[in-house]
Inverse folding.
């Protein structure tokens, strides 16, 4: 396949130029590592040659902060995308990571639900915006296309998360190795199944990533075993450790791979990116 016809994924699998794989990072529990996973996975994918766009759908804007975008620079945000009138390509900002850009968020998103409550297309706003981006990529063959969109969802099952699930091909579920880890997961799975049945028949769980794992405790291992029993092959082999460097990185506006690329947390995200690419490759080949 010639370069202008498609983008060659690692492993030699060509995908149509305009096709973007859209992964929603979701779990309605807070503090499970959604944002950390979104920004560090995005960085790892960019580091191995993918072009990645992170969409910050959390009104707290932690992904935006973690990728070094100050509040003052967030002039066009996910609110403007979902409220209409601004495209993803117009709002996307480059980050310090080559190949990684972000559409930011701020507290404006809190008011979105009421703003679009009576709109018939309210659940499809993000999907439509991504379709526009794909069409733009098909028309513009001069630059390398975006191959992955990672959506950092808020810690709730609201209109924002619903927009993400309708727009996504699959869901990445971070589960922390702590007490009550599986609490609410069955609810998330029901929501995913409901969206698949009514709004997005292609939606699936791409995988489950164990986060905040403490190898020194039996308890972390017990939770990991329980999650693997619940999700089976969906659980990635790469496990994200509880790591001081991962916790420090966002306050410096850097993903862990830039803040300390030799740390155990950084290496874990590189392994996770490799696994996700491999699963995507298998899906494409199927």
């Amino acid at each position: 396949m010639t370069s202008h016809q498609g983008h060659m994924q690692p492993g030699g699998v060509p995908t149509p130029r305009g096709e973007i794989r859209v992964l929603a990072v979701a779990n309605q529990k807070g503090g499970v590592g959604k944002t950390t996973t979104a920004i560090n996975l995005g960085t790892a994918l960019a580091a191995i040659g993918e072009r990645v766009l992170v969409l910050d759908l959390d009104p707290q804007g932690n992904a935006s902060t973690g990728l070094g975008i100050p509040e003052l620079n967030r002039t066009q945000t996910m609110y403007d995308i979902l409220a209409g009138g601004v495209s993803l390509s117009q709002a996307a900002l480059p980050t310090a990571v080559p190949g990684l850009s972000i559409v930011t968020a701020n507290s404006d998103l809190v008011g979105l639900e009421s703003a679009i409550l009576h709109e018939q297309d309210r659940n499809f706003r993000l999907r439509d915006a991504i379709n526009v981006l794909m069409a733009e990529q098909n028309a513009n063959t001069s630059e390398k296309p975006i191959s992955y969109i990672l959506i950092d969802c808020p810690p709730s099952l609201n209109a924002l998360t619903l927009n993400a699930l309708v727009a996504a091909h699959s869901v990445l579920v971070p589960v922390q190795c702590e007490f009550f880890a599986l609490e609410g997961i069955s609810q998330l799975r029901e929501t995913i199944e409901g969206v698949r049945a009514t709004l997005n028949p292609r939606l699936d769980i791409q995988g489950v990533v164990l986060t905040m794992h403490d190898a020194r405790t039996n308890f972390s291992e017990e939770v990991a075993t329980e999650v693997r029993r619940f999700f089976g092959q969906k659980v990635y082999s790469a496990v994200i450790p509880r790591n001081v460097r991962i916790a420090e990185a966002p306050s410096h506006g850097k993903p862990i791979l830039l803040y300390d690329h030799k740390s155990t947390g950084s290496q874990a995200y590189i392994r996770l990116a490799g696994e996700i690419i491999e699963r995507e490759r298998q899906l494409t080949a199927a």
Q: What stands out?
A: The radius of gyration is 18 Å.
